[in-house]
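Annex B. Sample input.
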Amino acid sequence: MPQTRADVETRQRQARACALSGTLLNSKLREPSHIAYQTAYESELPVIGVMILPMRVSMSWSLRRLLYLLTACSVLPLGLLLAYNTGYQYRQDQQAARAEALRLAQQSADTVEAFIRDARVVLQTLSARPAMRAGLATPGGTCDPIFSSFKQFYPQLSNISLSNPQGYLICSALPQPDNKPLPVAHMQWFREVYERQDFVVGSMLYGPINRNWISVLAEPVRDEQGRMIGAVQTPIDLLKFRLLPGVEKLPEGVLVGLIDQQGRVVARSRDATQWVGRELKGLSPIVDQVLLERQGTAESVGVEGIAHFYGYTPVAGTEWIAISGIPARIAMQNARRSLMTSLLAGGTVLVLVLWLALRLSQRIGAPILAVSAAARRARDGDLDVRAPSEGPREVVAVATQFNAMLDAIQHSQARLQSSEERLSLALEGAHLAIWDLDVARGRVLHTETWAELLAEPQAPLDNTVPALLRRVPSPDRQQLYRAASALLDDPQRNDFLLEHRIRRGDGTLLWLATQGRVTARDRAGRATRLLGTHRDVTERRQRDEEIHRLAFFDPLTGLPNRRLLAKELAQALARARRSGRYGACFFIDLDQFKSVNDARGHDLGDQLLQAVARRLQDQVREGDTVVRMGGDEFVVLMTNLADTEEGAARAAHAAGEKIRHALEQPYPLDLQHYASSASLGIALLPQPGQTPDDVVREADTAMYRAKSLGRNQLAFYRPEMQAEIEQQLNFEHDLAQAIQLDQLSVHLQTQYDLQGRPRGAELLLRWLHPQRGQVPPADFIRVAEQTGLIVRLGDWVIDEACRLLGVLRATGWSLPLSINVSPRQFRQDDFVASVTAALRAHDTRGENLVFEITESLLVGDMDETIDRIQRLQALGIRFSIDDFGTGYSSLSYLKRLPLHELKIDKSFIRDIPQDSDDVEIVSMIMSLARQLRLEIVAEGVETAEQLEWLRQRGCDRVQGYLMERPMPLTQWLQHPRQR
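Annex B, continued. Sample output.
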């Protein structure tokens, strides 16, 4: 490598500095003045010590006694006060911890009681159904249809079943073992429900259907004469039993649980799988105390060996006891802080008292102590110190002799010290360790900076060449050996520069830039002495590595990123074309990831992405590449699959199925299991003219085809897919343009009561495309949801609804308008503000505005959802559950939501009264709505039979083509019914 003049001059200066350093260091050891200093210093100090010692002995003892007395008098009262305060705080924290533990236990007991009450209401409702009685009255009778669809109405229950007096489960929502009636006559809950002929909460057992720890809740089924003819029951899945609302938010280590009279763990807020079913009686004093007292508090060491404050109370109607535990380390934090404060205050006072005592002793013996202190500083190397010439004559004489001695020593050392300081400043500024190698002896001398670089400033270092090389890792050692050998053997080479690693005393590796120069050669031209420097370049190397990591790797998962994939693909294509062997690129997109991310938060979403990354790495071969493209998209690059395209396709299909199967397994995250799946697109490589960008684009296109097949699928790329993707992108672009180009409009469809009077209207969005014509709402609403345009569409609809309210008010219309609000739009942070702004912009009120929300909005933070609904209700807006029965629903959630009405989805109305299942479902929905005091609206009414059936059952309002079709505002206002 060519050297510049500046490089040569720099190395020459370093060599001269090394030589100067060696000369100065050696001369320091041989300097006569230095020896004189040693002799004078060592000869004079004993004399000073002999003179000072007799004067200090008696005085030091009296000062020490005075210091102890002052310290004791000052600190003792304060120490007693602090000790009392700490003890008081400790007792207060104990009482507070016991009270909090009992409160948690009582809250847990109340939650369990509420769940059992709700479950009993459900079982009583089921037991009163005629279909239940019919199934028991007739041997081999047909099971109630509710068993096949109970999850739609009772998602909080894991199963429901029906048992006959002979002790068999004749009906079950979940499949029974071997598809045969399960014998249950031997089970405790069965015997008890028939003995008591009343609702029972059974002891815990291992469920043969659920294959898990359960407790069975059973309710008698009676005939019309009140005789018990069977029982309907539901199991509580004890591993998933939520003992408190928001139990996962409890502080780390805080536990709640249930135990029964036998001391067995019935339920537990943490690690339920490990603990439920274990008998703890006799394993810990706290368990025996809880079983004996049933209610109270205690401080004890639990089964896990950790001290807790416990609270416990019985659960009414059961044999269970709710127990909570707060770790003592958490509960006593205030006491510990009080103790630390006390110690700090006491220490501060003690230091202050000691300081005052020392100041007093110094004032008494200041002249003597001043001379003694100067002597100690001179002994430690401070030659600038001077003893004060004051006090008794003897002390003044000693101080004068001492100062004269220091003047002589300083004068003799001035020139050498000046040279050493200049060299030290130069070396410290460059942070260089200078080394000198004697080739013949195989020994290396270093300056003190070398020991600092190796983090061994105190330990003696082995300065042999083999010892130095042993510190260098093997790959770097070979490079260093080759560079040094070339320098030793080649008379034409006089210097070298190499960066390598070296192991420090603490085991860490340090990056060094080692530079050397030949300073002497023998007659044969072989180097006999080398001089050089070591420079620490670790920070620069780490910065380079960090820049590389940030540029080519994903910070969340640690996987390669899109930029590194481009390099890997280019190399893979080149290798495949040279070898003639095919590979494959898999584009992977997680299904419904955004729903999990929105509902459970970004932290859980990040955990899911990290888990997916680990699973992908587990499924690929060594040498394959797993890449995170961003968001929920991953790429897997596999090379060297087969010699033919057909063989590579088969291998890629097998690998893709393996990946797909691995990704659809549940993910244990945050004490819960989350289900997910993935859609995979596969592109084979190499293809004629194929570039790295082409490979990714083709795999991405195939992935979208897999999603269109229903998700959790895989698809291979075909050329015609690109045209379909471009068509889809054009559709999305047209939809975005439709908002700006005023291609959207709203139609109105009236809602009528059963007397045919208008009671409201629903706004329905329409899109008239200039080329496509009228686009079905189902098509463009789906695309809007996928692309995020649904928020802009929703804002436009709300603004249009507020405008129409003003127009309708001018025509005399004072009935409400209903509009659909998507969950994504509802969860926008500025949603309430944007609605308020729309109402103000059109000078209208919210009393005639109804927001129709779907059941999917119930997934997520219910407290935030309720708060947002209440803020909108304050504006006068009412809320309706739309398309009820088609999504997620929960009785507990519906009870909490401040709703006004419930809309039955048209899919249930379509086949009534002919379809008995739909009749049963609609009847139950209407019954549920009445219990919740909600108005009932049936949509999709198209026949007179449907209308008559709904009228007979007391439906409040209807909407559908039977009455009128949706129509534009001007046509709607002219409709005879409106007039």
